[in-house]
Amino acid sequence: MSGLKLFRTTRSGVTEVTPRLAEVEADVQGLVEAHMETLLGVRFLASEYGTGPVHRGKIDSLGLDENGSPVVVEYKRGVDAGVINQGLFYLSWLMDHRAEFEYLVRDRLGATAAAQVLWSGPRLICVAGDFTRYDVHAVREHRRSIDLVRYRLFGTDLLGLETVASVSGGTQALRRVRRQAVAQAAADLQGASMVELASAVDEVLLGLGDGVNRVERKQYRAYQRLRNFACVCPPQRSKLLVYLKVEPKDIDLVPGFTRDVSGLGHHGTGDLEVQLRTSRDVERAQDLFRASYAAA
């Protein structure tokens, strides 16, 4: 991984763990597919999925992410200039075969998951040994959601993943229009103060780092790196609920501000609920926002 060095510490000193690539591409694919939800935040659906006699291809992996977006995952052992175009080819095929994909989701995950597939946000994740600057530039020119993920193996039991580039689908103008429409609708219902609070939270979450994508769902708005790190529900009359990927047991919970919702049903993802009522609450929550961003 770029610039990253890993060392094993002992009483006598430190020993560098040399990074390496997989022997064959199938080793990377098998490892990710076996632990896809943990590694990528994507529920695994199928491997080497055939695209029929016309396209005559096989999609390395198909999955469904935390927000219900269809995901195509393509793997390369090292550097391969064709991985993005190949993935986009399969993503295009997927968009033309929605019913077939929903049938697959229904078969693997059930009818509820199939009914909630988010076709407005299909994603392509490319996992490879490395990418060129031309790859990074290319994904920024496309109007699809694409993540470039670099892997490295360390020793016999360590895997490293690094997001090299992450781009959300759609244009900035379309996102601004949608954002303004959502804000206006909320203003009509909840009043200006909660809308201003939601706008402040949006600015903070998007500003945590490069490659933060915002995914709109009816019940919540997700903020995503490779995985969700925050989910913001529509403003209530007097508070804004944010769910974070922070382990509640690792922090001191404050009644009326933070709550452990692990095992409780709620919209979005994350086991820590943060209740925001004022701009001061947003400031209090920033360390939690950063911790969740880092975990993602």
Please provide a written account of the structure.
By secondary structure, this protein is an alpha+beta fold. The chain contains ten helices and 15 strands. The chain has helices at 25-34, 36-40, 52-55, 83-95, 98-109, 111-115, 133-141, 172-190, 192-206, 279-295, and strands at 6-10, 13-17, 19-20, 42-50, 58-65, 70-76, 123-128, 145-154, 158-167, 213-216, 221-224, 228-232, 240-244, 258-260, 272-276. Strands 3, 4, 5, 6, 7, 8 and 9 form a seven-stranded mixed sheet that branches. The protein has a six-stranded antiparallel sheet with strand order 10-11-12-13-15-14, with helices on one face. It has a two-stranded antiparallel ribbon with strand order 1-2. Helix 8 runs antiparallel to helix 9. The protein is globular, with a radius of gyration of 20 Å. Residues 171-177 and 186-190 have low confidence and may be disordered.
Give the distance, in angstroms, between the N- and C-terminal Cα atoms: 17 Å
What's the number of extended β-strand segments?
A: 15
Low-pLDDT regions: 171-177, 186-190
What is the alpha-carbon Rg in Å? 20 Å
- Helix content range of the residues, please? 25-40%
- SS-based structural class? alpha+beta
Strand content: 25-35%
What spatial form do the alpha-carbon principal axes imply?
globular
The major beta sheet can be summarized as:
7 strands, mixed
Number of helices: 10
Mean pLDDT: 89
Helices and strands, in order, run as EEEHHEHEEHHHEHEEHHEEEEEEH
